[in-house]
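Justification of computing resources. Each target in the renewal requires a structure prediction run like the one illustrated here; the chain below, 520 residues long, is used simply to show the kind of job we budget for.
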Amino acid sequence: MKYNILYNYIAVFFSLAMLTTSCVENEDLVQLDPNNDAVDSFWKTDQDALEGVNAAYGSLLTDGTYMRSTPLLLDAKADDARTNSPWASMYNVGHFNSNVADAAIYGWAFETYYQGIYRANQVLTNVPNIAFTDGALKSRILGQAYFLRGLYLFHAVNLFKNVPLPTELAVYYPQKTQAEGWAQVISDFKTAAELLPTSYDGVSGLDAGQKGRATKGAALGYLGKAYLFTKDFTNARTTFKQVIDLGIYSLVSNYRDNFTTANENNSESLFEVQFSRDAGGVELGWGGAPTSGWGKTSARAITYAPRAFGWTDVQPTWALFNEYQEEKTTANTIDPRLDATIFYNKPGTKLYGKDFAVFYASSPADLNDLFCRKYQNSDGEFADEYDWRSGINERLLRYADILLMYAECLNETGDTPGAYGYIQMVRNRVGLPDLATVKPGMTQDQMRDQIGHERFLEFPLEGHRFDDIRRWGWLQDAAKLEWLKSRDAEFNSYLPGREYFPIPQLEKDNNPGIIQNDSY
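Resulting C-alpha cells:
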C-alpha cells in the first residue's frame, strides 16, 4: 500500500454534481437527489474537510490529467518527442493540428482541470465554516486547496491561453485574458505558500506523515515558475531562492530514480502525482464520476512504451539522441541520462527482461529506432505494459528544475557568472565537466542557449520542453523555428497560434461569450 492520501480520493463526491464552466439553469443547482442527502450533511467535520481536499487531488489521477492526456499535451509538440500514433486525435496533438470538431485528449484535459478547480472551490467555500478541533489542520487543508486550484489553472492558462477563472461557486464564469489568468495562478500559489508546511512529517492531526500532499516548497516552486512564464525574472529569482534556502531539497544520486517506483517522493521531488497498483480497484479511471472499482494507476507507460510492449504513441527524437552525444563526461563516457531516457540498440541493453538486439532482430525498423525508457516499468519486473496499470508516480516538479530555472533568472537579471554554479550542480550528478572551465565567460545570449541545452537534456519527455520553446519566443523567431524544423519535422505543421490548444467546442456552446483561440 503506497500512501493514505490515495484511498480517500473517491470517498466524497459521488453525490456532488461536477460543475465546470458550462451553463446550467439556476434551478438545476438546487435540486437534490431524494435518495441521497450526502451533500446536505457534508462539510461538518475535520474529516469531511480532509476528504474534500482529497477529492480535489483525485482530479490529478484521471485520463484528462496525469493518467494520460496531460503528459501527451505537454510532450508531443516538442522537439524531444515525436508521435506517429494511428489515433488521429493523438497524432494531431504532436503535429499542431488538433481539431475543433474532435475534442478528444485536449478537451478531456480542459474538462478535468475545471473539475479539479470546482472541487478545490468546494473546499475553499465550505471549509472556513467548519469549526475545526485542529486549527493548523484547517490551514493546511485550505493551503492545499489553493495549491491545487493554482495547479489546475496553471495548466488551463498555459495550454489554452484565455480561459474562465472560477474562484467561487457560480453558474457562469466569463473568459479572461491570459494575463488575468497568470495573475490568479500567482495569487493562489502565494496564498498556498503562506498556509502550507514544509513537510507533513512534523505535523499532528489527520494528515500527519502523509506523503504526496502539497507543501510550501511545491507552492513556492510553482509560484516561481508562474513568474518565470510571465517574464517577471526578479520575482522568479527571489522565489526560487526561497525554495533553495529551505534547505530540504537535494538531487538524488541516481538520475533514473526520478522515473521509476524506486525512491518515490525523494529529496529531489517537490511535487508528484501519487499512482499505485495497490490502491483502489483495477478499473481504469477514464473520467467522470468515480466508482469504487477505479484504480489509481497511470496509462502513461503503455502510451509511451517501446514497440510490442505497449502502444508506442510517443517516441524520442533523433535530435535528442544526438544532442546527448555532444559532450562526454569527465570519464569520457556518454551522458548517462541518455540510457535513462531512451532505449536503443546498444550492446547489452535489456527491456522488460528481453535483450534489445535479439528481441527486435527480425524487425530492422525497430532495431534501428528509438523508444522511451522514462516512466516505463521496464527493468524486468513486468513483461509489458498491456494491463494499463503503471504505478510510477509522475514527478511534476523536481529540484533540478528549480536549480536551472534559478540559473536562468540569474542570467536574465544580469548575473550571468552566478548562473554557472547552479547549472553545474545538475551537471555534476551525471559527471559532466565544469562548465566554467569548458565555456568560461559566456555572454548573456550564449548562456541563454546553454541553459536551453541543459534543460533539453535534463528534462526530456517530462513535459517541459515545449513550454520552454513557447516562453522563449522561438516560434516567433524565424531562425529558431527553422532550426526546430530541422530537428523535428512536426514543426513544419506549425501555424501561428497553434502553440495553444483550441477551446473545446462544448465550452463555447455552453458558456456564452467564449472566443476561440487564434488559427482555429
